[in-house]
Task: inverse folding
């Protein structure tokens, strides 16, 4: 299912990417595929490298022509081949999931840190104009909200630590080698094509799967924890604006969110009501290791630096997302 009708990328970006060669690492994944969808609609020449460990080749079906390289970012030769001739690199490839990173910290470090180093080295050699990196709001840990980019990082999981290390690498490559980079700290991105079948599925995906199956959604903790849920088109917009920035960004960290707070209890109630299953009250389980209590993005810096503002609100995005899950998750 395409989601282009929700956001008019042409009106926002015109011909800025026409015939521009862009590499999207992890392009067959959730966020990566939405970047590919927008870029192909804008006439870009899109290259994807993905080992399909978390993505699906079918996520790219129906878009414009895409050069697809089936390989891991740990395969340096494949990364070099993918980067060749690209003006921009959108580095989305990573192992996600805070709980899984707690279980497999060495694997996460290998893919998320060493893999990022490979992408930077290949980009430097290929003289890429800018690398935009998918950072994570998990870097803030238990800082008081709203979260502002100058706050100290407080990683509470190996996954968060990986992302913080990658931010440092981005800054180092800008300062040591002159490779321009940007770190977009995503806040709880959701939308169509987010996998609901993983044991580590993000909360909206997990709730949708449970409700469609007629099961009570599971909440870890008391449900009072809140998130700045951000529809995926907002992360796409941030990446497109970051690529287009006329000024060097030099490894700066930029929050990508909607500047809103919704509790997990509120989310469960809203989704159950939308599905007509208000009888399916949540089941509560103990807190998970590495989870944070609240997230909330301050957007002043990203607005000032690259002109970002959300293009799709939470309610509109949630409706589109739930409609999509209804089409792909079989009802009992």
Result:
């Amino acid at each position: 299912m395409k989601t282009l009708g929700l956001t008019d990328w042409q009106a926002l970006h015109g011909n800025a990417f026409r015939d521009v060669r862009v590499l999207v690492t992890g392009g067959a994944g959730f966020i990566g595929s939405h970047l590919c969808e927008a870029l192909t609609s804008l006439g870009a020449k899109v290259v994807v490298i993905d080992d399909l460990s978390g993505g699906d080749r079918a996520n790219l079906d129906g878009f414009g022509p895409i050069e697809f390289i089936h390989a891991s970012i740990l395969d340096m030769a494949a990364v070099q081949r993918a980067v060749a001739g690209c003006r921009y690199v959108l580095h989305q490839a990573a192992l996600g999931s805070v709980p899984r990173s707690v279980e497999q910290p060495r694997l996460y470090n290998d893919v998320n840190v060493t893999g990022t180093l490979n992408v930077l080295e290949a980009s430097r050699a290929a003289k890429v104009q800018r690398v935009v990196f998918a950072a994570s709001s998990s870097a803030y840990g238990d800082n008081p909200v709203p979260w502002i980019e100058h706050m100290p990082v407080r990683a509470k999981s190996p996954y968060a630590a990986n992302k913080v290390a990658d931010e440092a690498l981005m800054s180092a490559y800008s300062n040591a080698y002159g490779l321009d980079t940007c770190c977009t700290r995503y806040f709880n991105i959701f939308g169509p094509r987010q996998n609901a079948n993983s044991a580590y599925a993000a909360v909206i995906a997990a709730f949708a799967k449970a409700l469609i199956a007629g099961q009570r959604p599971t909440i870890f903790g008391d449900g009072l924890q809140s998130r700045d849920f951000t529809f995926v088109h907002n992360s796409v917009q941030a990446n497109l604006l970051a690529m287009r920035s006329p000024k060097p960004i030099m490894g700066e960290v930029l929050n990508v969110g909607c500047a809103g707070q919704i509790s997990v209890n509120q989310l469960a109630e809203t989704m159950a009501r939308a599905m007509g299953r208000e009888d399916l009250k949540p089941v509560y389980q103990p807190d998970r290791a590495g989870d944070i209590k609240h997230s909330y993005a301050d957007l002043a810096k990203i607005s000032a630096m690259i002109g970002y503002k959300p293009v799709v609100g939470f309610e509109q995005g949630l409706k589109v997302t739930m409609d999509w899950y209804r089409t792909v998750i079989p009802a009992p």
Notes: The CA atoms of residues 216 and 280 lie 5 Å apart. The longest strand covers residues 130-136. The chain is about 40% helix and 15% strand. The chain has a mean pLDDT of 95.
